[in-house]
Amino acid sequence: MEHAESIKNIAETAAWVCAGIFFIYRALTGYLVTNMSLSVSCTRQSSKRAGNDLVRVVVLLSKGPSGTIALHDIQATVRVGSQEPDLLSPSSSATSVPHDGSVAGAGTEGKPAILEFSSTERLSFESNSAGRKVIKWNKPSQANPFMHLSPGEATQFATFCEVPTGRTCTIDVAVLGKVLWTPTTSQWRASDVSMPLLAPSDA
Predict the structure, then answer these.
(1) Is the pLDDT of residue 113 over 80?
(2) Residue 59 in 3-state DSSP?
(3) d(CA 88, CA 162)
(4) Lowest-confidence range among 14-28, 76-90, 102-116, 146-160?
């Protein structure tokens, strides 16, 4: 009887060891890798301000089949071709709203302008007299500040800025996020190029 109990204990221990080895193997081979795809696209049109164009930047995030992502930050840089004039950052006529609600300052020579995306933070809400939940647009949630993307979900974020007419601009996007209950912060990057608009005579 004792011999049978010992064999049972050994078998249970071996099963736990094998399960641990399997988990480590799957982790090392990518099972716990954060699987999310990122794409960025740009559209361009003439601005009402002479000598400038408006560039719209759209970021699309698509979550893979495992794990839920908490989004921490999304930013983009916009750089004019190296031989071109400085980038005109968002102004009163082309506003990009960063996380602190201010308007991004003008870029300096040789440095890209940084664009931040709105709608990346979870908003607070309250109940009205009828018990209906109502969003509070100007109050980000302090208790649960991160937007989540569950497996199979997709969402997009957009912003825009002004750039000099006739100049090629490179847009680089970076995203930070974490799978829930894991310590590692993951990063995704993507880029696009906004080409100058063709003059009517060139179309």
Answers:
(1) yes
(2) strand
(3) 6
(4) 102-116
